[in-house]
Amino acid sequence: MNKKYIIAAAFLILGAVNQSCSNDFIDVSPTEKIPEAALGEIYNNNEGANSLVTAIYAKFLDWNMSTFAWIGVTSIVSDDADKGSSPSDSGSDKDVLDALNFNAATPSFKELFASNYQGINRCNQALKYLPQLDKADSQLRQRLTGEAKFLRAFMYFTLVRSFGGVPLVDHVPVTGVEADKQMTLTRKSKEEIYAFIEKDLKDAIAVLPNKSAYGASDVGRASVGAAHALLAKVYLYQKKWQLAVDEANLVTGYSLTPVFQDIYKVSGENNAESIFEINGTGGTAGRAIQQYSQVQGARGTTGWGWGFATPTQSLYDAYSATDSRRDATIIHRDMTLYDGYYVGPNTENKFYNYKAYSSNYRDQASTDVNIRYLRYAEVLLIKAEALNELGQTSAAIPFLNQVRNRANIGNTPASSQADVRLDIWKQRRLELAFEHDRWFDLVRTGQAQAAMAADGGKKFTVGKHELFPLPQDFIMEAGGLSVQNPGY
Q1: For the residues 387-400, what does the mean pLDDT come to?
Q2: Residues near 44 by Cβ (< 8 Å), separated by ≥ 6?
Q3: 333, 417 Cβ separation under 8 angstroms
Q4: What is the DSSP string of 301-367?
Q5: How far apart are CA 235 and CA 327, in angstroms?
Q6: pTM for this structure?
Q7: Calpha distance 269→384 (Å, rounded)
Q8: What does each C-alpha distance from 121 to 40, 134, 170, 234 come to in angstroms?
Q9: How many distinct helices (H) and strands (E) make up the chain?
Q10: How many Cα atoms within 13 Å fall on the side-chain side of residue 201?
């Protein structure tokens, strides 16, 4: 959507909240709550209805949602990235994440848990109040309801992949209502969470428009294609192969960007390959994904950032010399970037994340980098993986080859189901590096133990590390209503 509109709407909703303290961990403290009187005065019109949902998107710009903790628990923890920065800078807990020595008190997990529930809280408020806005256009309210459900499903997908079963907060809790307190503190099973995600996405599919139906001011909003793509991914994680294929087949109207690096330039934002991405804007007047680029920027005399989440040598070596994705994903010393900027030979770390690079605002906290979360290339790989697991290997290979050929590495040499599976997994790594999927892919495919051992001899404990620990603060507050994940 229009980036300036994100900011205005976010301030509108946040300026209208009541702030009241709460002891409940899942409640935002201060709790974000819209005064009932504001419904008629401020929100009961198209602009007000829009602002309720735009504020959900704005949550993804926050530091605790999309930056340091998120980078740590998706990239640094995996074999795609090392902690980076300087040896003396732990990054709060990025050293323990890198070494797989984390526990329930590790701060990044508290941020991961709390930020997504803050976002879910915004979704639930929008879903509560949108039906009451009788002066807003009914079709607009219907579409906004679909967007809120898509975004809620997106956040629950993050939570269930990270922690397994979590509390299912499906409405705004009412203070003093015991059932609502128990709702916020009681874990549901991962199967119940997945069922809820599926229902939200199916509801969203029923009302969301095609991406092409949005005007310029709404670029970046969730579309029916995004809901189908996310549902296909949700089915993939549950090994519901045929359902994953069926949903992937419904993602239409998208195409691969011919030149891989062009995806990650400002000119490539929300392009024909983009299915869903988080939009930020640069400069002092903008509100970017807070310091996302700065945290991962090159460190040193010719650098511009903090130097965290540096690509590993194993990731670099996994690309062939002819693979166009390598030098579009990884910045290295003595390299001239696409905009002519020269990264000298004296940066503190050997490699940096190119996908987080901002040409216009490289050394500023507010940059114009977007996070690409769903791309058509991944839909092709989802379809290929699901078809291969169904035993339809010959049907899977053409979808795999589309991704490979865009990368200039030719058709897959694999032909057996087992070999095609390995190539699909490898192409997911190379295609989606630093797009926050690698750790979850390692876990869901059973590769994590071997991959961590190869990444400096790190010990992935089977039966423990498949899930992150729930935050200790939450476990203490739950008082027995929720139990910690095994091994923590």
Answers
A1: 98
A2: 132, 133, 134, 135, 136
A3: no
A4: TT--S--EEEEPHHHHHHS-TT-TTHHHHEEESSEE-TTS-EE-TTBSSSEEEGGG--SSSTTSSS-
A5: 32
A6: 0.93
A7: 25
A8: 21, 22, 9, 22
A9: 21, 8
A10: 23
Parallel/antiparallel/unpaired status of strands 342-343 and 308-311: unpaired
Distance CA 227, CA 197 (A): 11
d(C-alpha 143, C-alpha 111), whole Å: 30
Cα→Cα distances 287→60, 142, 211, 364, 370, Å: 11, 28, 24, 11, 12
Angle among Cα 32, 33, 36 to the nearest 5 degrees reads 165
The C-alpha angle with vertex 371 and arms to 368 and 374, in degrees rounded to 5, equals 140
Q: List C-alpha distances in Å: 370 to 68, 168, 328, 359.
A: 15, 29, 15, 13
On the question of a cis peptide bond just before residue 30, with omega within 30 degrees of 0, the verdict is yes
How far is the C-alpha of 173 from the C-alpha of 103, rounded, in Å? Answer: 29
**pLDDT tens digits, 144-171:** 999 999 999 999 999 999 999 999 999 9
| Host H or E run for residue 373 | strand 371-375
Distance CA 430, CA 296 (A): 19
- Tokens representing residue 66 in the block: 């999309």
Transcribe 164-208 into DSSP letters. Answer: SS-B---SPPPTT-HHHHHHHH-BPPHHHHHHHHHHHHHHHHHHP
CA distance 13 to 122: 10
Of 276, 311, 312, 282, residue with least CA distance to 294: 282
Cα 187 to Cα 166: distance, rounded to the nearest angstrom? 4
| Residue 372, SS3 per DSSP | strand
Across the range 19-24, mean pLDDT stands at: 32
Q: Which two tokens stand for residue 5?
A: 């509109």
Mean of the per-residue pLDDT values for the chain? 92
Q: Please enumerate in sequence order all residues whose Cβ is within 8 A of that of 308, keeping only pairs 6 or more positions apart, or say none.
A: 68, 71, 76, 83, 84, 85, 91, 94, 295, 296
User: Residue 144: how many CB atoms within 10 A of its CB?
Assistant: 28
Q: CA 309, CA 71: separation in Å to the nearest integer?
A: 7
The three-class DSSP label of residue 119 is helix
- Both tokens of residue 155? 């956040």
- The residues near 372 (Cβ < 8 Å, ≥ 6 apart) are 263, 264, 274, 277, 355, 435
Q: At what angle do helices 138-163 and 107-129 cross, to 10 degrees?
A: 160
CA–CA dist 320, 324 (Å, integer): 9
Q: What pLDDT digit, counting tens, does each position of 286-312 carry? A: 678 999 999 999 999 889 999 999 999
